[in-house]
Amino acid sequence: MEPLTRRQLLSASLFGRLLAAERSAPPQTGEAVREWSLENDVLSVRFSHTSDGRFEFRGIARRGGSSWAAHGGGSSPIRLCVGERWLDKTTQYRVQGASEREVSPGRNRLTIVLELIDGSGQVTLDCDIWQRVPVLRYAVRYRNLAGQPVTVTAADLAAWEFEAADETYSALRVEQWLPTADPADFDPLERELDRNGQPVVLESGTHGRHCAWLALAGQQRQGLVLGLEFDGYAETFVRHWASLRNLAIRTEIAGGLNRVLEEGEEFAVPEAFLGVFDGDWDEAAFVTHGYVDAALAKPAPDGEFPYVMWDSWAYGQDIHENSLRRNADIAAQLGIEVFVVDLGWARRIGDWREDPAKFPSGLRALSDYVHRLGMKFGLHLAWVEADPQAPVLLDHPDWTTSTGYGYYGAQSLCLAHRNAREWVVEEVVRVIDEYGVDWILQDGEGMVKRCERSVHTHHAADSNLAAAEGLDMALSEIQRRRPRVLWENCENGGNIMTFNMVRHYATSIVNDASGAFGSRKGVYGATYPFPPRYADRYMPEEALTPYVTRSYLFGGPWIFMNPLEKLRREDLDLAASEVALYKRVRRVLPGAKVLHIAPPREGEIDAIAAWQPQTDTVVAVVTRDNAPQSSFDLRVRELTPGRSYRVAFATDPRVLTMTGDQIARSGVTVRLAAPQSAEVVTIEPL
Fold first, then answer.
1. What is the domain-level CATH number for residue 663?
2. 270 Cβ partners below 8 Å, 6+ apart?
3. What pLDDT does 31 receive?
4. Helix (H) or strand (E) holding 379
């Protein structure tokens, strides 16, 4: 078979059947090219084994839409270094075998097994796709067959090269939350790629600046999305060489890699995904969210999720069972569904037993009381930190990481060290069982710790990957043993925003009690990479107004972080009505397309919305933040042009009838009378 031309790759012929390969003889010049295609109803991906033994990516295409051919100079998703030998697009292999199977309903996997020509190693590529999702998830594994130990010294999560069109490309990144000298607060960063190869850099994972997600698009609005399922620190470089017609994406595990493999031992590169979209950045987000929901996220615990919650941090660590009971009584009356006791309940960090001075009746008694009120019981747990005087460190002072992080004076336990990890797992399971915990609020200062201790069970020069794997193993084991418990990622105020995070957590913080404006800002940015459920907000305000409460309505769990027993009656009445409003809003969000209409800026009007394709319904939150204008024209293009819709407001008594075309062209006029005010708009088909 002759190699396909790039024009053929760009055509609908990408949607062919899988050509299964069987074990082959050593490749020789002139041998027929072997080709594989993996396809579903919306996507096709193609690979080939060339006549000179190279394994190549050939292209990825969306049915009737965006098509991305591999660069003419070659491209391979395999790129790792074993000893001093790079395995990449130039490496020669034998094909050991290839197969396609249905892993689960709607999910197909193509597995290709390659052997190095000299027989010293084996590479396995697993490619997964889901029905109705234009995203490829891929994983690379290397097995040592050299007859002696070898060391993997580098491994790329992404190594893609595409044939660039004669146009300008732009990249979208989204920052994480960083309380540093150069702070970050989920700001979307759009940047045009330099045409001479200067990179746009994505720094993701623990202590990284960005979420582990990147979107690319040309002027024709054909786009790619890349996501990383890795909690460690990684660096992604995107380069456009216009003169070479080359658009390249490469992701490196940063901080050094030193993975020693014995004979027969296998190394797995962390998973990543590549998707295609057509349109604007909202469409890139919609494709990504669909993949997260189909492939990664655990199903929502029930039809009431995301929850309304209360957290005790308004009291700091000065908590007592009596005041907590009073707050629980009020929380239940407001319709709050989860009651969380924050930092300060334990004797000290790392000594996870209740403080008897604060809980003379015992923490389990409070948990039981909360449950009788009809709420779930949550507990703050900085489970990878320990005070120097905690029993675990008095007994095992060598279990700490070599780098200190200073979380409230605590030291960090090394999850890459097997002994420490096994103790942590048992301790967390004990806390869950002993105190009747339904929800864990995970906190700490970075979960992927740097550790170069030679006495630990990990290699001293393999800290980044080993720590990320340790975190994953600990979480997986705890959640296997206690699957009903839900976890919230509150890491460092909004960090570790990765696509491995979504596998373990029900939600993640995007607002570390930074107020109404910070809440809207965090949600606006975070809902590009992540579905709304992964954007929870903490509301610290005590004087409530619709401007305040509605700044927290859109996203994941809405978490009250104020002393309910100190709120005025009018504030409690408003809270109860707004909680009821939130519970109506949240019904629209699962599976919805997020519409980023106007970003939050001080002195302006911002707007965010969700369009639910199953019901053709829209809910929008429009907020005036001291803007000079007192109205906003809300335009939504996703509705059916000739269909009639009912438009209603949470405050404004008007009820309008408009067509989808009218809403897209003229917009819905939203009235915002007060300098600080907010309105919730609902658009439903008649």
1. 2.60.40.1180
2. 157, 228, 229, 230, 232, 253, 465, 468, 500
3. 53
4. strand 376-381
Q: Which domain holds residue 108?
A: 6-296
SS3 readout for 83-149: CCEEECCCCEEEEEEEEEEEEECCEEEEEEEEEECCCCEEEEEEEEEECCCCEEEEEEEEEECCCCC
The pLDDT of residue 523 is 98
SS3 letters across 451-490: CCCCCCCCCCCCHHHHHHHHHHHHHHHHHHHCCCCEEEEC
Phi/psi of residue 191, each to 5°? Answer: -145, 135
pLDDT tops 80 at residue 6? no
Query: Which residue matches tokens 């969210």?
Result: 289
Q: Is the distance from CB of 251 to CB of 174 less than 8 angstroms?
A: no
Last residue of a domain, one of 262, 296, 330: 296
Number of domains in the chain: 2
- Whether residue 26 has pLDDT greater than 70: no
Q: What are phi and psi of 548, to 5 degrees?
A: -70, -55
Q: Give bridge partners of residue 378 from the DSSP assignment.
A: 340, 439
Q: What is the CATH number of the domain that holds 286?
A: 2.70.98.60
The SS3 call for residue 286 is: helix
CA distance 670 to 633: 6
Tokens describing residue 427: 């301790």
pLDDT at residue 32, rounded to an integer: 63
In a domain, 315, yes or no: no
Residue type, 203: E
Can you tell me the distance from the alpha carbon of 495 to that of 459, in angstroms, rounded to the nearest whole number? 25
Residue found by looking up tokens 């033994």 in the block:
53
Give the neighbor-by-neighbor strand order of the sheet with 43-49: 34-39, 43-49, 55-62, 67-69
Q: What is the pLDDT of residues 160-207, one digit of tens each?
A: 999 999 999 999 999 998 877 788 889 999 999 999 999 999 999 998
The domain boundary, picked from 296, 311, 327, lies at 296
219: Cα within 13 Å, side-chain hemisphere: 5
Q: Considering the domain boundaries, does residue 626 fall inside one? A: yes
Distance of alpha carbon 415 from alpha carbon 59, whole angstroms: 39
- Decide if 601 is inside a domain: yes
Cβ contact 399:359 at 8 Å:
no
Residue 220 Cα distances to 124, 243, 401, angstroms: 35, 19, 49
* In-domain check, residue 422: no
